[in-house]
Design brief:
alpha/beta, 10 helices, 41 strands
Amino acid sequence: MHVSNEVQAETATAQGELPSAIVRRADGVYFRADATAVACQAAVNQIFVSGGYFAGLDYAVFIRVLYNTCAEEADAGKGPPLLRFADNIVQFPPPRRELYKSVKIINGEAEYYFEPVFFTVPDMPPQPARLIFDEFVADLWAKGIRFGIDAPAVRAAIASGKSARLIVARRLNAAPGRDAAIVEVSQSIHRSNAPREMANGRFDLNSFQNRFPQVKAQIKLLKKVIRTPGLRGYELSGIVLEPAQPKDIELSSVAGEGTVIEQVNGVEYLVAAVEGFINVDAASKRISIGPKIISREGVSTRTTGNLQLTGEYEEFGEVQEQRLVDGGNITIHGDVFGKINSRGGTIAMQRNLMGGTAINAEGDIRVKGVASGAVLQTRQGEVVLGRAESCVISGTRVVIGEASNCEIMADEVVIKNAEGCAIAARRIDIDNAGPRRQTEMLLFPLVPDTAKLDQRIAEYGDKAAHHGAAAARHKAEIDAITSEPELRNYLMLATRVRKQEVQLTPDQLVLFQKMAVSVGPALRTVGKLSLSVKEAQAQQGQVQEMAAQVRQQKQALLALGRCNVKTVVGETLVRTMRYNPDQGAVFDRPPKDIKSRLRASSASLAAIFSGSSGSIAWSAEDL
């Protein structure tokens, strides 16, 4: 609908005067950037109430101006800065307003049913009409929906002209802010001999909260993270939803003797004023730094208890029984009788692991001395031992000088001398293997279960055969059609005409054209069948390529499996053990599971070797 400029000018308000917050120029309609959001909302409301609407509306700018600041985006021309948001202000005729139906508002969402609309004209059938997004905004404003219209969705629904029930506007909930917080910036600031409180609220009597943390002068201990205000939300009606005020906290509440508060680049820090040990008052939570403390009691149950560390740890004494050292990159110079647990890095034991446990989530475990009656496990890393007796060992790679009566699972196992062990790995390399007293020597090369891969290969083979049969069937149909005398004669003649081997007289040309019309359906059928042949052959080739890839994947899995023993020095039994490659590391199991699986009856497993002398050289590719 086109409206003259004179009529458009009269539709702004009942008096033809625009609100002060809005400026209309020849190149569009603008908000005054110095006008408040409230003034802009009132101006818009005045335009809509007076029966007008904004043509060519930029809804993103429109809504941002009404509910946010906008001065930085203003047009820097003559006069006050302006923000363009529409092409013009035009009249919203009552007949068109009747095209817009009611909306349903539930839980902050406005639902509208889009359907084909019609003008009602007396003595005439209903005339088709189309909704206009700019009118839609004005209509929803009159119905109390003044914020949150999903402009892209509404425009798309209007453009499609199809019936659809759509959420056209949504409330914007207020986004909560972030409370001010005090965070640690040093590795360890707690000094407490109290039992460590666990996550469930109970206390671990075997662990202290921390003992004798030491810092140097000018070391930053804590910093204040200032509170961050939340973001306003808006109801569909445009009512502001204010976020809750974030809580504040002051560093002075935790500052004790020997500390000062400093500002660095606008950030407040609690800084050590002197060098010394840190003490945390459990009641007031204040941190103070006192004189240097020297402990001569050593590391024992009475002093450190179980240790839970955040960084690297080096211990020159022993780790007693039932004691736990939890950290990363742990080095122990004394004997270990307790449990070492590392989150990563390397566990390095310079002496012996006697009846204890060493577990590394991701990293190596190395024992220079003897491991006896112990458990050594790493999910991803290497276990290196000089000598192991009656141990349960698992890891990505296990390297041992001498192993006796051990249960070992890994991807790869390398041992010089093995006696009475039960070993399962994808790659086994042993110099000398044999039993120990009454304990037999068991080797289990791990063989991947390729049933799924075999099934996929068979399925691809069936599909390839199906496509091949389809291609052959289409070829047979082509041969049957082209063997008809009339079509064969036409094709031979057409070939000679195309090669200019014969020249047709006008009468012969008429007959030739009649022949072309006669065999035309057959030729079109042959063309379609030829395309079907090519398509079936292409699909067959693709399926065959996929089958080849799966075969390569299977071959790569099998290529990893081997079992080599240079010298068998006593009764040794080798049986294959299946594993599912889709279930992750086969060795990542609890010690009891490893022991029971390796020592359980293995009569059902396929035997590779059983003897007391000779050597073993087996590969999974031999299967």
